[in-house]
Amino acid sequence: MPTNTYESPLSSRYASPEMLYIFSADKKFTTWRRLWIALARAEMQLGLPITQAQIDEMEAHKDEINYAAAAQYERQLRHDVMAHIHAYGDLCPNAMPIIHLGATSCYVGDNTDVILMREGLLLLQKKLVNLIDRLTKFAMEYRGLPTLGFTHFQPAQLTTVGKRATLWANELVMDLEELNHRIDTLQFRGVKGTTGTQASFLELFGGDHEKVRTLEKLVSAEMGFEKVVPVCGQTYSRKMDANVLATLSAIAQSAGKFATDLRLLSHLKEMEEPFQDKQIGSSAMPYKRNPMRCERICSLARYVIADAMNPAFTAYNQWFERTLDDSANKRISIPEAFLAVDAILEIYLNVTDGLKVYPKVIERHLREELPFMATENIMMDAVKRGGDRQALHERIRVHSVAAGKVVKEEGGQNDLVDRIAADPAFGLTKEEILAHMDPKAYIGRCEAQVEEFSALVVDPTRAQWASLLTDEQPELKV
């Protein structure tokens, strides 16, 4: 690859070959040619003077993109669509007079954009389905392993490692539902003419409205679309782009939440992302195990969330039937959002496939905090033996503050159990108090919730998208 020109890291470092192809020049311009062929074929079927020989000539050269000729024409014409019409015409001299007949630039530009966005969404759909499947398997494996829950990143009531994983998976389920909605509701721009009035096609067909309607149906069907925008100006509404990128932003938000949680858990040494045998965490500190994969997810997620503002600004600023200030922005913002989310999901899959859990560390943290969380049960036990609930509540408060001081100010161990056992107001032995220290007693319905989530939410998803499930392990470039 050239080293003396800028190249997007999304291409060289992050995105998958499949997504890179979808937004490649080859894919774009061969799709333009498929659209020109579909238009010519439909026009021929409806009686315009176009021959099968011309169609065959266009078909024969549809994948032969003569980039040098197109670049030369664009330098002269300052118009990319006209440049590619002339370049295609050089290869198809007999068909040249009927290429792009009656159409405007947005016939190929906008329709291609919708096609590429749909293909990009379908690729992301596959990755989301597999990610949900794998995260849920992880959740089921660890559904009964108690761990500290956190609110405000302060120890709270217990949860389980598996239950926490369902929180990550459920956000992806929400994203998949939204993504499927986007795929289902994407509309082809169709055959609408220069300002969306279809005037040029009405002229071609001598005022026959039915033939114009049929022309659009034939082209749309050949390109694989049932739904076509009912009305438009020169372009389809740019709200479509804004909606698609809002969906991509939502995926980035979910992935960023997961990655942030795992970075915090990595600091606690309770869970970690994969770390390869020869991987280096720091050039200066050899002992470091930085969560670089999750940091990359967060970095790319932030980019996508910000990038999603671009089509929103474009949508509100389109004047009347069209302005061209969408074009340069659209060429960058939409492909890069897809490439970045593709990279995010590739990394997310890689991390999920190699998640490390450290039960001993989790257990140690539980032992440090569980005495505080068990105080309500201890108090109820003492009340059953004749204690005064209000007085015991105050005694627990005093002992908890003192035990917390030992931990925080003196760096000692949590001695709350010993303090309560030594207090005659409770009338409990240390053994009786320790009986309340089983973490399983404080996880509520975590195990059942994970099992129900897997059975009621994820299993139907697995069944619906069984053809997309795979055991492939994503390999990261860096």
From TrEMBL:
GO cellular component, one term: cytosol
SUPFAM superfamilies on file: L-aspartase-like
One GO process term, biological-process aspect: amino acid biosynthetic process
Keywords: Amino-acid biosynthesis, Lyase, Purine biosynthesis
Domain Adenylosuccinate lyase C-terminal: 370-454
Coiled coil: none
Biological pathway: Purine metabolism; IMP biosynthesis via de novo pathway; 5-amino-1-(5-phospho-D-ribosyl)imidazole-4-carboxamide from 5-amino-1-(5-phospho-D-ribosyl)imidazole-4-carboxylate: step 2/2; Purine metabolism; AMP biosynthesis via de novo pathway; AMP from IMP: step 2/2
PANTHER family, A to Z: ADENYLOSUCCINATE LYASE
Family of the protein in this entry: Belongs to the lyase 1 family. Adenylosuccinate lyase subfamily.
Identification of the protein by name: Adenylosuccinate lyase
Lineage of the species this protein comes from: Bacteria, Bacillati, Bacillota, Clostridia, Eubacteriales
